[in-house]
Design brief:
Blueprint: E1 25-27, E2 36-38, E3 52-54, H1 60-63, E4 69-71, E5 79-82, H2 107-110, E6 114-118, E7 125-130, E8 136-138, E9 145-146, E10 149-150, H3 152-180, E11 184-192, E12 198-207, H4 209-213, H5 217-226, H6 228-237, H7 242-246
Antiparallel strand pairs: 1-7, 2-8, 3-5, 4-5, 6-7, 9-10, 11-12
Length: 247
């Protein structure tokens, strides 16, 4: 399960963990990337080999219609959309790299190959680009910079990643509150397919509806004002999407 933020390569020591999908993130600069473009023909083949992807809370309402939403057993806790029942399997991306029509595409995937990254020991973020991505090409057809200035493409990527990072911070607070209130149950999914084959999905966390309903009224009111109740209900309703994965 990838995290939604990581660090660019740094000299010396143990290389920091990279976010899911990213292999060579570099801080964007007009000097270093003046001759680079983003390919106009992009697809989602890069996401075919993952069975889950991080979600921000604001996405739950749209994602729950198509994917089970769970929480990782890692620390810190990260919400995730389940995309397949087998390791390295995404059932929503075709061999041609097309996402299943009519299905919500998580923001974590839509931002690729861009990403906000914090330098080691820093709290500020910079816009980075995965230079190992096949979407990063030479030329000026769809450039990142023109005359030393960021193009609309780069400005839009910056705005998207900034919004994503802001929602990620709110989601972290939401998950921390769930942990503080001891609302999580640990689960594993034993699934039998139509052909009789049995699969077991690794451990994950879900919100205990019983303990959620027993929360004090003051907590419920506070979470309603924050918009978190809608996220919890979307998570609980997303369990109906397990059936679509096993069909």
């Amino acid at each position: 399960m990838g995290s939604s933020a990581g660090n660019p390569s740094s000299a010396g020591g143990v290389p920091p963990a990279l976010p899911l999908f990213y292999r060579q993130p570099e801080l964007l600069s007009a000097e270093q990337h003046a001759g680079k473009s983003i390919a106009r023909a992009v697809d989602f083949r890069f996401a075919r080999a993952t069975n889950s992807v991080p979600l921000n809370g604001v996405e739950f309402a749209l994602a729950q219609r198509h994917y089970p939403i769970v929480f990782t057993s890692s620390d810190p806790v990260v919400p995730a959309a389940v995309l397949g029942l087998r390791d390295q399997q995404n059932r929503f991306v075709s061999a041609e790299g097309c996402w299943a029509p009519g299905h919500y595409i998580p923001a974590y995937i839509r931002r690729y190959p861009f990403v906000f990254v914090a330098a080691p020991g820093e709290e500020t973020f910079g816009l980075c680009l995965d230079m190992a991505s096949e979407f990063v090409v030479d030329g000026t057809d769809n450039p990142l910079f023109t005359s030393g200035q960021p193009t609309e493409l780069t400005k839009n990527a910056l705005a998207f990643c900034a919004a994503y990072q802001a929602e990620y911070a709110v989601t972290r607070k939401f998950c921390a509150a769930l942990v503080e209130q001891n609302l999580f149950d640990t689960r594993s999914a034993d699934i039998r397919l139509a052909d009789g084959q049995k699969l077991m999905l690794g451990t994950f966390r879900v919100i205990s509806e019983e303990r959620f309903n027993a929360l004090p009224d003051a907590t419920i009111l506070d979470w309603r004002k924050r918009g978190w109740l809608a996220w919890i209900y979307a998570h609980l309703m997303s369990f109906a999407s397990w059936g679509g994965l096993t069909a």
